[in-house]
Amino acid sequence: MRWLILLLLLLLAGLQYRLWVGEGSLAEVAALHRGNEELRQELAQKQAANERQAADVIDLKQGSEAIEERARQELGMIREGEVFYQFAKPTAPRE
Question: Whole-angstrom Cα distance, residue 28 to residue 52?
């Protein structure tokens, strides 16, 4: 009877070891869940960026307004007959 109790205790200890420390342990599963959540957030950010870029592509293909807006913002271009004013911040006088 003692051998059976000892065998069952050893078996219980082995199972507890696997549950807490071994492969597929609770800590490992929790780490995988955290990693999975981080990947989901990264995926959502990348999908939003893809949607913005797809909207930009559609705008650029459909009309010249988007092209004109980009030329004005990124290249500083102006239409013929327009006057461009650039305001500079005043610098502190030198002493």
Answer: 36
Q: What is the pTM of this model?
A: 0.50
Closest CA to 36 of 48, 24, 28: 28
Q: How far apart are CA 67 and CA 64, in angstroms?
A: 5
Task: Report the C-alpha gap between 47 and 61 in whole angstroms.
Answer: 21
End-to-end CA distance of the chain: 99
Q: Where are the domains of the chain?
A: 23-77
pLDDT digits (tens, 9 = 90+) for 10-54: 888 887 777 777 777 788 888 899 999 999 999 999 999 999 999
Closest of 53, 81, 83 to residue 66, by C-alpha: 53
